[in-house]
Amino acid sequence: MAERRLQPLARDAMAYVLAGGRGSRLKELTDRRAKPAVYFGGKTRIIDFALSNALNSGIRRIGVATQYKAHSLIRHLQRGWDFFRPERNESFDILPASQRVSESQWYEGTADAVFQNIDIIEPLKTEYMVILAGDHIYKMDYELMLQQHVNSGADVTIGCLEVPRMEATGFGVMHVDEKDVIIDFVEKPENPPGIPGNEEFALASMGIYVFHTKFLINLLQEDAINPSSTHDFGKDLIPHIVKNGKAVAHRFAESCVRAESEKQAYWRDVGTVDAYWQANIDLTDIVPELDLYDGNWPIWTYSEITPPAKFVHDVDGRRGHAISSLIAGNCIVSGATINRTLLSTGCRVNSYSQLDHAVVLPEVIINRHARVKNAVIDRGVIIPEGLVVGEDPELDAKRFRLTESGICLVTQAMIDKLGS
């Protein structure tokens, strides 16, 4: 890993987080909130990872572009990310689609979501722009990517994952030369190009881009008047630079932040219910692949003031206990058994109930004698007494959202239909 400079480039950079996506593959989890606002890990939201990476990297100018069902996201940002101080040359701007360019035009693509806010970006006079997706789980030092961008003389530097070549068919893939200069950009190819010297792997785009600010603004202004453009980074701007300028790949392994216990570079797209459930359940491992306890790279979030978690009752058959589980604050486990489960803030699990491999979002109530297995329970759901989830696939498919791998997604609307 490269050494840091004495004066970090991150101090002269703005992080611009694209957080307007719906995340429709998460089904009912995004009916009331954008994907970046979905809860993760019992306490945080998905967007907190990109924002924490920026903050921990030394970036003190941050903008977040929102659009789809943004209230939950905006409220979280206002509560948890309001500590930036203008007098310290810091700023944190929430940038909803507000028809600034046209009275009829919302954000029409990822590039347009930046273009429409040029008048906010320019006065900050930052030298660099770090464009980020707000919907992935990972820890990364953007300072190291900024250093590569400057040292290589690139017009754009693109964060890339090394993935097995035939698993890259769902990504934008970088075809690079021996110096990681991108010679072609292929969107979801059937036969992805391999990495020189390591042909069994391909470089897949992470949706992270570094630009010089002036270059990006000029590029966005040209793209805005191009009638054939969809105004998207991956579809329009990046292919244009690959063809007409210099685009360089930055390998995630070179800037991934890992605690001593983290053996592999960790990055997850939790864009499906199955992937979301698995990434949360993985946190219950004895030594998880993602270390949330690393004080050297904290994941910042809105920290509610809550009482500690509480476990009560100690008689046979009615003993409040949890095994290999994460329990957030203000949870009460009252005579219930919990195994490989994640309880978010403010949950109540009542006597004789059992939770096994469950991801439970905030303020859920599990009533007596209920059994829940291999499930995601949405925020505020009240599980009725004696309800069984995750043991009968045919019955679950009729009552709840059942994924191909057998994970149940349960919302309050689904519970309400049980009594009708």
UniProtKB/TrEMBL annotation:
Keyword Nucleotide-binding annotated: yes
PROSITE patterns: ADP_GLC_PYROPHOSPH_1 (PS00808), ADP_GLC_PYROPHOSPH_2 (PS00809), ADP_GLC_PYROPHOSPH_3 (PS00810)
Keywords for the protein's UniProt record, in alphabetical order: ATP-binding, Carbohydrate metabolism, Glycogen biosynthesis, Glycogen metabolism, Nucleotide-binding, Nucleotidyltransferase, Transferase
Broadest EC class assigned to this enzyme: transferase
GO molecular function, one term: glucose-1-phosphate adenylyltransferase activity
Positions with a binding annotation for alpha-D-glucose 1-phosphate: 107, 172, 187-188, 205
Domain Glucose-1-phosphate adenylyltransferase/Bifunctional protein GlmU-like C-terminal hexapeptide: 307-410
Enzyme nomenclature, EC number: 2.7.7.27
Family matches, as CDD domains: ADP_Glucose_PP, LbH_G1P_AT_C
Domain Nucleotidyl transferase: 16-284
Coiled-coil residue spans: none
Catalytic activity field: alpha-D-glucose 1-phosphate + ATP + H(+) = ADP-alpha-D-glucose + diphosphate
Gene3D superfamilies named in the record: Hexapeptide repeat proteins (2.160.10.10), Spore Coat Polysaccharide Biosynthesis Protein SpsA, Chain A (3.90.550.10)
Cross-referenced InterPro entries: ADP-Glc_PPase, ADP_Glu_pyroP_CS, GlgC_bac, GlmU/GlgC-like_hexapep, NTP_transferase_dom, Nucleotide-diphossugar_trans, Trimer_LpxA-like_sf
Pathway assignment: Glycan biosynthesis; glycogen biosynthesis
Site location (Could play a key role in the communication between the regulatory and the substrate sites): 67, 106
Subunit structure: Homotetramer.
Function: Involved in the biosynthesis of ADP-glucose, a building block required for the elongation reactions to produce glycogen. Catalyzes the reaction between ATP and alpha-D-glucose 1-phosphate (G1P) to produce pyrophosphate and ADP-Glc.
PANTHER family: GLUCOSE-1-PHOSPHATE ADENYLYLTRANSFERASE, GLUCOSE-1-PHOSPHATE ADENYLYLTRANSFERASE-RELATED
Family stated for the protein in its record: Belongs to the bacterial/plant glucose-1-phosphate adenylyltransferase family.
Name this protein carries in UniProt: Glucose-1-phosphate adenylyltransferase
Organism: Rhizobium alvei
